[in-house]
Here is the input.
Amino acid sequence: MNTKTSRLPPIATLGPFIALLLACTFFASQSDRFLSTQNFSLILQQVMVVGVIAIGQTLVILTAGIDLSCGMVMALGSIVMTKFAADYGLSAPVAILCGIAATALFGLINGLLVTRLKLPPFIVTLGTLNIAFAITQLYSKSQTITNIPDGMNWLGNTLRMGDTNIAYGAILMLALYVAVWFWLRETAQGRHVYAVGNSPEATRLTGINTDKVLLGVYVLAGVFYGIASMLTVARTGAGDPNGGTTENLDAITAVVLGGTSLFGGRGIILGTLVGALIVGVFRNGLTLIGVSSVYQILVTGVLVILAVATDQMSRKGAR
Amino acid sequence: MSAQPKIVMQAKGLVKRYGQVTALDGADFELRAGEILAVIGDNGAGKSSLIKCLSGATIPDEGEIQLDGQTIHFKSPIDARRSGIETVYQDLAVAPAMTIAENLFLGRELRRPGLAGMLGMIDKKKMLEESIARMNDLKVGIRSMLQAVETLSGGQRQCVAVARAAAFAQHVVIMDEPTAALGVKEGNMVLELIRRVRDKGLPVVLISHNMPHVFEVADRIHIARLGKRAAVVNPKFISMSDTVAVMTGAKAVDDLPPEALAH
Here is the structure.
């Protein structure tokens, strides 16, 4: 028996880091402005919303599911929190909690449909994507909400570290990644998320309540979308009913680029952070060297296919 | 002859109906301490319904199940597990991408002491040590417990599943066709492990279609037929063909020589 293979990190784990390094090297050679702490802090600020959505998305994908509703639920959350603050005069923390409750509720609905009615997550979340979008439009009357309390902008403020400014929101995102990484690695609940994605039947037979794990994951994902709502409101200073459209697929892209298997049960959450950074670096770098953002979309598409192909092939190699 | 070993698990008059079909029609069952009891039967003989009742996967309509003399009512396999009955399935038993150590403790992770444990943190080091100890105990030769299960052969994977059951079962290990998906060599490896589990004092219920395997390891053979127990035979004193004849109804139990029957 060959024990060496299991010790070496599979290509799916190292791939994202290599891709990120290559992208950074390329853009550094093309633009003087790319390699600066100021620019990196800007990239972090640009990816913080997608990054936090992608945490929830990673959890769902680890269970062999997918959540197509993530961006729209995030947009709904941002409308709920800004409108509750603007219309009912709720204080920023209370309004934010209401928004997170709304996104968690959507997670609960997704989870209940997946576990109780055994519907495929793809179809369930395709449905809730449209429902969340419609509610967002109806509730906001398609109007951007701007008269929000100052407290809601706070996370968009920056902290001065040397000569760079880092947004509080970006720090929050990094902290969430570390916390979820730790939870997935070191706790029984975290390991059960992997087990359910890896082999639901075997997991059920060991006595783990797999429905409870799945439901928990969808609700938790909803909470992360709500935190992302809070970050997007802080970043833009408004509740945007048309938000979430790019974030929706960008979040799935980040997860896939980060090496998490769409078949479930395999992946590292920190890979998703790298995946989100790859998307951010391309967007930022191509803008710096003056290339149309359409090319960024093109490159992302190619990278996604590469990432899934690597996943597929590394799985075949493991058999 | 010395006195019979005591009965660990017993069922009397089990009845299970699925709509119009009567799967179990007053089936009896007895498992004694320290034995491997094979359960055989043609398709539809009620063999799997019987095992499902014993492992908690289904609830019998009538009849009684006793464990160590106590009447029990399992509502789910989890109830059975809590009573010290572990079941090994033909396949689907392990999570392939997870390590051997993780699989052994899946759903029963050891927590760290103190506050960290209360927060749900698992004690990986202790689980690894225990995994090594338990696998050594059963002489399962696997180099690293940190290997993913998918790097193992089919037989080795099944050994992991059997070792897990043996490690946690307090009373009974039920094995449902544990060698069906395996090749000859791998199958023998698992049979050898099943013997070791018995020798450690755990009685084993082995469901199998494979007559050579049954005759190789079983101490007694329970023959299920038409929803009932047709006979319990002693593999030392009965031929394989007579056993199959009883199983299919080609030969009446009364026509067997008396020493062939086990009591």
User: Anything to note?
Assistant: Chain B has a mean pLDDT of 90. Residues 184-199 of chain B form the longest helix (16 residues).
